[in-house]
């Protein structure tokens, strides 16, 4: 009888210890910095993977030779010219909203970060990426219907020519992501600072 009681108490103690250990493992109300960083990295990887999957799908879904992948800024016109602008049957006028894009040319965060790091100081790269996301959602073709701002950093038409010329891109189109990024860097460092943008990052 004594052995039976002892085995009952030992079993009860083992269950209680396992329950306490389980509560200790799963009761972590605030994530650590490492957990947050790994979660952010996983989200970024998922975003980039999705962007590449979408690009691959759009290339495979089209007719052969219809689209060409731009390998550099000089070939960006080939990619933009892939859609026939005379085909009015596929164009729709936006009914409401503030942003419109004729083509879905969204860039990934990795692509935007690479562009930004070419023109912005190292300490300003993260802020510039956040501003680009806030301004255009990384769509270099976006246009604000209310203000007329265009491009990755949403430059206003009345300031675009000066900024593009000063940044070394005279005559560039505001939807060119490289020219838009260079002009944004010029506006921050030699123009009006970060107040140039509606989004402050």
Description:
The chain is mostly helical and 201 residues long. The chain has a domain of 103 residues: Lysozyme (Orthogonal Bundle), CATH 1.10.530.10. Helix content is 53%, strand content 2%. It has seven helices and two strands, in the order αααβααβαα. Strands 1-2 form a two-stranded antiparallel ribbon. The longest helix is centred in the N-terminal third of the chain and has 29 residues. The N and C termini lie far apart (72 Å).
State the CATH architecture of the domain at 99-201. Orthogonal Bundle
Question: What is the CATH T-level topology of the domain at 99-201?
Answer: Lysozyme
Low-confidence stretches: 63-103
Count of individual beta strands = 2
Radius of gyration: 26 Å
* Structural shape: elongated
In sequence order, what are the helices and strands, one letter per element?
A: HHHEHHEHH
pLDDT averaged over residues: 75
- What is the helix fraction of residues, given as a range? 40-55%
Beta-strand percent range: under 5%
Structural class: mainly alpha
The helix tally amounts to 7
As laid out across the biggest beta sheet, the strand order is 1-2
Biggest sheet, open or closed, and with what strands and sense? 2 strands, antiparallel
N-to-C CA distance:
72 Å
Q: Under the CATH scheme, which class of the domain at 99-201?
A: Mainly Alpha
Descriptive labels:
single chain, 201 residues, mainly alpha, Lysozyme, two-stranded antiparallel sheet, 7 helices
List the helices and strands and how they pair.
Blueprint: H1 2-26, H2 33-61, H3 76-80, E1 99-100, H4 109-119, H5 125-136, E2 143-144, H6 157-166, H7 177-190
Antiparallel strand pairs: 1-2
């Amino acid at each position: 009888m004594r052995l039976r009681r002892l085995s009952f108490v030992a079993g009860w103690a083992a269950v209680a210890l396992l329950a306490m250990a389980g509560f200790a493992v799963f009761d972590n109300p605030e994530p650590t910095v490492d957990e947050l960083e790994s979660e952010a990295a996983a989200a970024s990887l998922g975003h980039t993977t999705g962007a590449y999957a979408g690009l691959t799908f759009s290339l495979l879904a089209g007719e052969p030779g219809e689209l060409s992948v731009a390998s550099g800024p000089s070939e960006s016109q080939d990619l933009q010219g892939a859609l026939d602008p005379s085909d009015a049957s596929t164009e729709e006028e936006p009914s409401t909203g503030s942003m419109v894009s004729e083509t879905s040319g969204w860039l990934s965060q990795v692509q935007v970060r690479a562009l930004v790091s070419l023109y912005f100081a190292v300490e300003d790269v993260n802020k510039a990426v956040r501003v680009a996301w806030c301004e255009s959602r990384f769509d270099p073709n976006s246009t604000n219907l209310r203000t007329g701002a265009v491009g990755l950093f949403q430059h206003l038409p009345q300031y675009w020519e000066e900024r593009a010329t000063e940044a070394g891109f005279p005559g560039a189109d505001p939807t060119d992501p490289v020219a838009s990024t260079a002009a944004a860097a010029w506006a921050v460092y030699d123009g009006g600072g970060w107040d140039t943008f509606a989004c402050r990052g």
